[in-house]
Amino acid sequence: MSGYQQPGQGYQGQGAPGGYQQGYPGGQGANQQVVQWFHAVDVDGSGHINAIELQRALVNGNMSKFSEEACRMMIDLFDANKSGTIDVNEFGQLFNYINQWKGVFQGFDKDRSGLIDVNEFSQALQQMGYRF
Questions:
Q1: What is the Cβ-side half-sphere exposure of residue 127, based on CA atoms within 13 angstroms?
Q2: What is the pTM of this model?
Q3: Strand partners, 59
Q4: Phi, psi of 65 (to 5 degrees)
Q5: What's the CA gap between 16 and 13, in Å, rounded?
Q6: Phi then psi for 112, rounded to 5 degrees?
Q7: Is 6 strand, coil or helix?
Q8: Distance (Å, whole) CA 75 – CA 83
Q9: pLDDT tens digits, the chain, 132 residues: what are they?
Q10: Which of 66, 107, 116, 122 could form an SS bridge with 70, CB 3.0 to 4.6 Å?
């Protein structure tokens, strides 16, 4: 699956992962909804979001919070300058990346239960070319 990263590995290539385009300098040209969300999450007004700010803003489908470590790993995927934070541009890329993964998950969750059961998992693996 080209463009997808293994959890916890971070992105090791040039540019943004998964074919994302760099852009949004200062938020200009960004989806204005994403820019508004960025500013809402950037509670200290620094122009950058750290793992704790991201954790406060995100919830799982079951309304539980992501761990700080999971948020740090998400930031690491798009933190181009390795500062430990993301700017509005990188936040937009992270937002798109999360939505792509959500779409992939929903594509495999045929019964819309919010869970991937053993049959759905088997079908997912077969669709990805794994045979057993």
A1: 10
A2: 0.68
A3: 65
A4: -85, 150
A5: 8
A6: 55, 35
A7: coil
A8: 10
A9: 333 333 333 333 333 334 444 444 444 556 899 999 999 999 999 999 999 999 999 887 778 899 999 999 999 999 999 999 999 999 999 999 999 999 999 999 999 998 999 999 999 999 999 987
A10: 66
Cα angle 125, 77, 73 (rounded to 5 degrees) comes to 85
89 Cβ neighbours under 8 A, 6+ residues apart: 22, 23, 24, 25, 27, 30
Q: Which residues contact 76 (CB under 8 A, 6 or more apart)?
A: 10, 11
Token pair 């934070």 is at which residue? 85
Residues 6+ apart with CB under 8 A from 53: 41, 42, 43, 44
